[in-house]
Design a protein that fits this description.
With 199 residues, this protein is mainly alpha-helical. It is 75% helix and 0% strand.
Length: 199
């Protein structure tokens, strides 16, 4: 069981670590000179963002009960909502900048795209934070010990940075790395000792 706990901890940390590495290459500003790099970064991030929700889902392997399923549903909501942000502001916005620059048009107004994208992404991060809180409650009840709540607090700190700074370096990158660390700590809470109480 000890080996599988550590394997699960490593597995749930991978998406956050990968997001941070890709985030290091994310341009700070979207301009014609950076639009191609911005778009490429988000094309690479597109399949990775949802995996952060999959990590939250994996924490609850084998767990039953309503709270566990609500937590899983919130992790899924994060994946959908943050994927929408990535598509709109990460891929659509630089496409507009590139095409306008190629035609010699004035810079397109991107504020509306960023506004709706940010709203969807922020809702997604809130869903992820709630998912992790519920998962911590389920894990603490079933396995005991302080690791699940401690890990959840670490994830919430990371979610705050992720909410505020997306994956922009350095704070957004730090945010997803902190989330990865917190999820790994929560995975270590799975001791194999279960108290048969409904979640």
């Amino acid at each position: 069981m000890l080996r599988s706990r550590h394997a699960l901890a490593a597995l749930v940390a991978v998406p956050g670590l990968l997001l941070g590495l890709l985030g290091l290459a994310h341009p700070i500003f979207l301009e014609p000179e950076t639009a191609e790099r911005w778009r490429l970064a988000h094309l690479l991030l597109l399949p990775v963002f949802p995996l952060l929700g999959a990590s939250a889902w994996l924490l609850l392997l084998g767990e039953r009960g309503a709270l566990a399923w609500v937590s899983r549903g919130l992790a899924f909501a994060y994946a959908v909502l943050y994927g929408a942000l990535d598509s709109i502001a990460g891929i659509g916005a630089p496409q507009q900048v590139l095409r306008s620059d190629q035609r010699g048009d004035a810079r397109p107004p991107l504020e509306d795209l960023f506004e709706i994208g940010d709203q969807l992404g922020q809702l997604g991060v809130l869903a992820l934070a709630l998912s992790v809180l519920l998962a911590a409650f389920v894990l603490a009840r079933r396995h005991g010990g302080p690791l699940a709540p401690i890990g959840a607090v670490v994830v919430l700190v990371g979610c705050y940075l992720f909410y505020r700074h997306h994956v922009f370096p350095p704070r957004g990158v730090a945010g997803v790395w902190v989330i990865a660390a917190g999820l790994a700590v929560m995975a270590l809470a799975r001791t194999g000792r279960k108290v048969d109480t409904p979640a």
